[in-house]
């Protein structure tokens, strides 16, 4: 598990370094995730240590959302006129994420099924 977490942090650090060196407009962690995605595509599979480490982070995700939720609660009047924009952003972000995830899953499943069918014929 520790190896997986260190791998994730390493890609984030690499993304941060590239962002600062090249002055890219994307945040470093996003660049790191793109690099990790490219690495996994080239490898063709997710290493077990990375799967274990990332699953552990996913299990802890609710804890990561507690602090921002508590912060929004205490903003009070300063946040009162921003609720429509906040709700629209959350709703649209959720809808787009669901659509993208569904299409990606469909594409990857087709690719896996096609690859599995070719392996059975050999």
TrEMBL record:
Could you say which residues form the signal peptide? none
Sorted alphabetically, which Pfam families does this protein's record hold? LrgA
Where is the protein localized?
Cell membrane
> Membrane spanning segments where?
25-42, 63-80, 86-105
The membrane topology term of the UniProt record is: Multi-pass membrane protein
Database matches in PANTHER family: HOLIN-LIKE PROTEIN CIDA (PTHR33931:SF2), HOLIN-LIKE PROTEIN CIDA-RELATED (PTHR33931)
Query: What is the protein name for this chain?
Result: CidA/LrgA family protein
Q: Which organism is it from?
A: Spongiibacter nanhainus
């Amino acid at each position: 598990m520790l190896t997986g977490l260190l791998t994730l942090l390493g890609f984030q650090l690499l993304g941060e370094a590239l962002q600062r060196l090249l002055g890219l407009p994307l945040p470093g962690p996003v660049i790191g995730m793109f690099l990790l995605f490219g690495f996994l595509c080239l490898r063709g599979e997710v290493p077990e240590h990375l799967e274990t480490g990332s699953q552990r982070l996913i299990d802890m995700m609710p804890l990561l959302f507690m602090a921002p939720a508590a912060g929004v609660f205490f903003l009070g009047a300063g946040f009162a006129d921003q609720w429509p924009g906040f709700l629209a952003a959350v709703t649209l972000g959720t809808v787009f994420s669901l659509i993208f995830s569904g299409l990606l899953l469909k594409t990857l499943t087709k690719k896996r099924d096609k690859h599995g069918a070719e392996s059975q014929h050999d």
